[in-house]
Amino acid sequence: MSILRTTLAVTGYGSFAAAIGYVLATRKSKVYPLPANDYLMGTSLFARFNPYNNPVTRDVCTRTVPLAQIKPELLEQEGALVQSFCRGVWSGWGYAYQRRYLEKKYRGPDTAIHLWDNDALRTSNYEVGTVVTDHFEVLAKSENSIIVRCGDSPRTQTVRESDGLFEMVAEIKKEEGVAEFQLKSVFYNGIAQPDKEGGKLDEPMGPWTQWAHAQYDKVLMETAIRECMR
User: Fold this and answer.
1) 9 pLDDT above the threshold of 90
2) In the chain, is it the N or the C terminus that has fewer CB atoms within a 10 Å radius of its CB?
């Protein structure tokens, strides 16, 4: 996706070296291809923003944490865990590079109501319609899931060339004694019509960009769960 590539290029893949090293050292976050039949791609959101069912780049980052390590208050109130997880994604240092880049480019009068500062990112309830740094818009929220649209500015509400869905999931599995966290990513070109253009459309990310994105997901995961842990 164009903004992701630009952000990574500006900040430098090398600038993530320390964070990636941390993730590789812990090896607790795992990234897998998101199954083609995952419910996220069966939602009306996916159908609306990818009307030609163009190829997607998709993955899911997973992490489990023993319930004994989770803040007790997050286990008592419905929806509290995923909300805390979401707060950690955007206010954690894992997102700091991208947040600063987007802030320099897009923060201004037209985006004043967006969430920019760490205090706001850490305390928001992330209700539907919330916009994070002119790049992520909350489209759906439930007791264990928050789905945002990404890939371009939310100020562009129509189908976009650079588009995607990003889902944060937090589930309490009492029988197993763990909380399971997931970061799901689905990227696509919503505009291209390969049948009319006479060509085959490739996935929006090549192998190197996919690998970099997977490492970035791990960083976001490791920093986000800190918001949920004792």
Assistant:
1) no
2) C
CA distance 32 to 21: 19
- Quick: pLDDT tens for 93-126: 999 999 999 999 999 999 999 999 999 999 999 9
Domain extent at residue 187: 2-227
Residue 91 to residue 224: CA distance in whole angstroms: 8
How many Å apart are CA 127 and CA 221, to the nearest integer?
21
φ, ψ of residue 119 in degrees (nearest 5): -60, -45
Neighbours of 110 (CB within 10 A): 11
Q: What are the residues whose beta carbons fall under 8 Å from the beta carbon of 69, sequence distance 6 or more?
A: 229, 230
Please count the structural domains in the chain: 1
Q: pTM for the whole thing? A: 0.89
